[in-house]
């Protein structure tokens, strides 16, 4: 089967052999009430309240939402408006830690009786996709159509990031247990663990562990970007095509990030909600690149300082990967549920753009066969009919077109702006 187009990137997996280190508890944590793709929560604590580890502090009645839990014990010192990295405003709870790390009395393994109780438990865990997009996991695990294949996204195709790789190396048993748990609860027959070829140790480990399970297949994918994009990994591992306007469940597939899968098993076993994240810290401003486990809400400055970063030399910090990550406007912002990497750099390369030379490189590398230069033209004249015919809504903003453009045109950014012109159903 022919694989979809992509680009070859320097992997720069400098931290792949760095075992996860626990970050010391910060003096203060800030927990935004919006840390995923769903609706924002409302604080259910007030200033002066004492909270404990694992205690729910934010909740919403919206179906497309997940609760927020405290990862520390301490006192609520402020509840105020907070501006996220994308400019949205939500409430945030500030907690002054006491260093005791006392667990909330309500923490206990959930009782699973059937599929619905399983889905409800996952929502209560506060889990969203840990690969970066932040889609509420309980929604994904409650599809309206029959599912026959579970695809585990273990590609981790972005340069620098090794957080998922360390999950596979350090917690392979949890990953496989999570796969079997999801398969059993949702009645899914087959699972495919899709791993890029540049992770031979992880591939060998899973092949050995799943050797006698003919329902779990290890799929080795070419090391190219964006191998981990949902539509790409579905096609390259199953041959199925998710058409425009479809969800993966429409073709009988659910895709879960490998770290998400391991967390599901641990939560059902322990009842401890999503309160920490493994984060890859790297970049030429970082003195000691490594993988750290940080409590959600920890200030980014504390993490960079722990990794011996010269903060005065930092010109740019990216949350996530080089290709699809987001620039951080303030290093005092906290780690959120979707933070899987922090990349700090000493310089900012602002390239000048020039006129399109019609070379077609953007078309050649687009995994979905889009025409970014034509989308750019249609966007400038606000021709919505052309944008629809050019299938702009299929764009997953992987940035491959921008990366290869010799004119340094911001094609991926334009694609996102163009999508905003299309009326949503």
Helix vs. strand class: alpha/beta
Determine the fraction of residues in helical runs and give it as a percent range: 25-40%
How many β-strand stretches? 17
**N-C termini distance:** 33 Å
Shape estimate: globular
Please give the count of helices. Answer: 13
Strand percent estimate: 15-25%
Across the major sheet, the strand order is 1-14-13-17-15-16
| Mean pLDDT rating | 95
Which series of helices and strands comes N to C?
A: EEEEEEEEHHEHHEHEHEHEEHEEEHHHHH
pLDDT under 50 segments (min length 5)? none
Report the biggest beta sheet as strand number plus sense, adding barrel if it closes: 6 strands, mixed
Radius of gyration: 21 Å
Provide a brief overview of the structure:
The chain is of the alpha/beta class and 425 residues long. The chain is 26% helix and 20% strand.
Question: Can you describe what's shown?
Answer:
With 425 residues, the protein is α/β, with parallel strands linked by helices. The protein is 26% helix and 20% strand. It contains 13 helices and 17 strands. It has helices at residues 115-124, 137-140, 163-170, 172-186, 200-209, 230-238, 258-270, 300-306, 361-365, 372-380, 384-389, 400-404, 411-419; strands spanning 21-22, 28-32, 42-43, 50-51, 56-59, 68-69, 74-83, 89-97, 149-154, 190-196, 216-221, 253-257, 276-282, 290-295, 316-319, 326-327, 341-345. It has a 6-stranded mixed sheet, sandwiched between helices. A 4-stranded antiparallel sheet has the order 2-8-7-4, with no helix packed on it. A 4-stranded parallel sheet has the order 11-10-9-12, sandwiched between helices. α5 links the parallel β10 and β11. α4 (172-186) packs across α7 (258-270).
